[in-house]
Design brief:
Elements lengths: L2 H37 L4 H16 L2 H16 L7 H27 L3 H9 L4 H31 L11 H12 L3 H27 L5
Helix pairs in contact: 1-2, 1-4, 1-7, 1-8, 2-4, 3-4, 4-6, 5-6, 6-8, 7-8
Length: 216
């Protein structure tokens, strides 16, 4: 099989990889904020439950979590797991896993803001909502962007884990071609795809960071 054919096959799988990547970000970034609010709740039971959730998400392999999301409904409730559920299980697994990491990143950013800024905003007549949106949030975003960038780059590579539930994306395509043709070329080509994607993410995030230089 020529390199051109391998590229064409992997490009098809790359579209699936990017769909998983994009959907995970769409759901996990806001979900991480919800988890953060639960983590810092005034109610101790809520805090402890969220801390347990974060501990489980960070303390167990993502691949294992994907397997549980996919096979769990069948073994627990005899639900049909065919058809479109495979993609749903993948997005649920990735979103809940990454939301735990994003929540802790948000928490570290919020804790880095001095209490004096809240007090100064109150003296100036800002409401809590205005203080958060106009003063605190822009500073927090700038502080956490490097950590968020690292997680997003990791997500690009983690999409390859969906082969564990036989979902056909770029890495699974490369594995199929490599097995059929007894060659490692598809893996090298897939590696180039991942690397270029990570470079693109880093470039975009670097430009976003520059937009927040005003908040130094």
């Amino acid at each position: 099989m020529s390199v051109e054919v391998i590229l064409r096959e992997l490009t098809t799988g790359f579209g699936q990889t990017m769909m998983i990547f994009a959907l995970t970000l769409v759901f996990s970034l806001p979900l991480g904020m919800v988890v953060y609010f639960g983590r810092t709740s005034r109610f101790w039971m809520m805090r402890e439950l969220v801390k347990l959730y974060i501990s489980v998400m960070r303390g167990t392999p993502l691949m294992l979590q994907l397997l549980i999301w996919y096979f769990g409904p069948f073994y627990l409730w005899k639900m049909n797991i065919g058809g479109s559920y495979k993609l749903i299980a993948i997005i649920l697994g990735f979103s809940f896993n990454y939301a735990a990491y994003f929540a802790e990143i948000y928490r570290s950013g919020m804790k880095s803001i001095p209490n004096g800024q809240y007090e100064a905003a109150a003296l100036l007549g800002y409401s809590k909502q205005q203080t958060f949106l106009k003063i605190i949030l822009p500073q927090v975003v700038k502080i956490i962007l490097p950590a968020i960038t690292n997680e997003i780059i990791t997500l690009v590579k983690d999409t390859s884990l969906v082969y564990s539930i036989s979902y056909i994306e770029m890495f699974a395509k490369a594995k199929q071609i490599a097995a059929a043709q007894t060659t490692v070329v598809p893996f090298f080509v897939a590696g180039v795809f991942y690397y270029i994607t990570c470079l693109a993410v880093a470039w975009v995030m670097e430009h976003i960071e520059k937009k927040f230089d005003y908040y130094r």
